[in-house]
Amino acid sequence: MFNDFEILETLSMFREQHLDVRTITMGINLLDCASDSSEKACQRIYDKICRKAEHLVKTGEDISHEFGIPIINKRVSVTPISMVAASGDSTDYTMYARALDRAAESIGVNFIGGYSALVHKGFTDADRRLIASIPEALSTTNLVCSSVNLATTRTGINMDAVRLMGTIIKDLAEKTAAQDAFGCAKLVVFANAPEDNPFMAGAFTGPGEPECVINVGVSGPGVVKTALESTRGQDLEHVAETIKRSAFKITRVGQLVAREASKRLGVPFGIIDLSLAPTPVVGDSIARILEEFGLETVGAWGTTAALAMLNDAVKKGGTMASSYVGGLSGAFIPVSEDEGMIAAVELGALSLEKLEAMTSVCSVGIDMVAIPGDVPATTISAIIADEMAIGTFNNKTTAVRIIPVPGKTVGDKVHYGGLLGSAPIMAVNTASSAAFIERGGRIPAPIHSMKN
Amino acid sequence: MSDSNKQTAVITVVGQDRVGIIARVATELAALSVNINDISQTILQDVFTMIMLVDYGTMPIDIKELASRMEALGDEMDLSIRVQHSDIFKAMHRV
């Protein structure tokens, strides 16, 4: 049935190479919770989440034990709250964040995502209220994550929203200054945000999603790194082939877990997100995979080419293993969550500008990057604008999760612990972008968006 | 025996070789009416490695409980014993 080699290989992936399923995320539609009484809406939200996800954590743990697969996180993502809150009588949306937080606490999930707004073409009144409440909402809750979609390839970039988010990120950093601006780790802005992403902080359940759905995010940088060790000295075709094989195996594990969870919970299976997601643990790093290609350190010239190939090969192997692939699906390059990336920044080999180049060929963006607290809001907006442009004009998802840490500067390091790791403060170009950001308006959609 | 039988698990035992490992593990499984379908054992670089394919269809406890009992036996014998549903190996190694 199986040969010894196969069984021992699987065993070693779990035991030594940190293979895990990073998250089982249940998407829950909350549109039917809307009410003209905000208080009533919050109660309905709490009740619905607790009802739908009551068995989520236990089911995840059962599957983990039976198959011997570590399942790290169980999470919930919900309909963007600006849509649910729009009809309510209260203009202070933080009560919705508290309801989400209480529900997440009750069912025992690690995070709940969807304190979100989709403003890529413009704001509704509710979107404005939600965004204005983000600093208060994220600094007074523990488990709530927030995301704002600022741009799509079809609509262009909402630069008014880009300008606004620069100030919101600064406010949130100030409000959580005592925890080194930890609040900013729970907020991400997107171009082309996927509606079925299971990963935080950007998970929300888009309006095109079903009533309730199971999405699974896999991981496994250690497996790819170990497999590549056997290709040293061989040409890049061997490297690509090896990555595809590893990605296939990793994705099949995710597929098995997703199908099992879907069956046991009686909830349809949505997608597998093929992302390679690092953790701060040694042996679980994307940077070290890139170095295995033959780079002295991540950030060296050649990094973008290696990352492009890695990202593409992961997708090719993964799509063979599952028919429903979605979410972000690619390699993540968060700085604080990857010991190899941290080492490269501390060595002076990896700059913010190189990270930006890397985001043009991978799945996320400027992620978990700590910068000096005195960087002006307009510069943060300009960083966001550049990332949004990369996503919008290249038909891909990009994101920014940046942390301006009050009172800290280049040379300092902040520690968040757990999966979020620790971040060396990175240098930011000090030339001003203020007049550009102050213009506001919209950047029109690229010509190649017109496909009809 | 078919691959798709939902009642099969793979048990792996890894550790320092010594007298009586197979006997102890097999006795424990027999007591739980777990049937051994296939067994292979080798010494890899001085490390005892045993792989068993078992059928637990008539076992009175669930696979979670089996996994924790075998793990406890492993701790007692200073070995690593893991029980995993066979579907995980099928998913990973069969197209």
Give a structural overview:
The complex is a heterodimer of chains A (about 450) and B (about 100). The mean pLDDT of chain A is about 95. Chain A is globular, with a radius of gyration of 21 Å. Chain A is α/β, with parallel strands linked by helices. Chain A has helices spanning about 5-15, 40-50, 55-65, 80-85, 95-105, 125-140, 160-175, 220-230, 235-265, 285-290, 305-320, 340-345, 350-360, 375-395, 435-440; strands at about 20-30, 70-80, 110-120, 145-150, 155-160, 185-190, 210-220, 270-275, 365-370, 400-405, 415, 420-425, 440-445. Chain A has a domain at about 210-440: Anaerobic Ribonucleotide-triphosphate Reductase Large Chain (Alpha-Beta Barrel). In chain A, helix 6 links the parallel strand 3 (about 110-120) and strand 4. Chain A starts with a helix and ends in a 9-residue tail after the last strand. Chain B is an alpha+beta fold and about 100 residues long. Chain B has one domain (about 10-95): ACT domain (Alpha-Beta Plaits). Chain B has three helices and four strands; from the N terminus they run E-H-E-E-H-E-H. In chain B, a hairpin with a 2-residue loop joins strand 2 (about 35-45) and strand 3 (about 45-55). Chain B is globular and about 35 Å long.
Which terms would index this structure?
heterodimer, A: 452 residues, alpha/beta, Anaerobic Ribonucleotide-triphosphate Reductase Large Chain, eleven-stranded mixed β-sheet, two-stranded antiparallel ribbon, 15 helices, 17% strand, globular, B: 95 residues, alpha+beta, Alpha-Beta Plaits, four-stranded antiparallel β-sheet, 3 helices, 35% helix, disordered N terminus
What's a quick, concise take on this entry?
The complex is a heterodimer of chains A (452) and B (95). Chain A is of the alpha/beta class and 452 residues long.
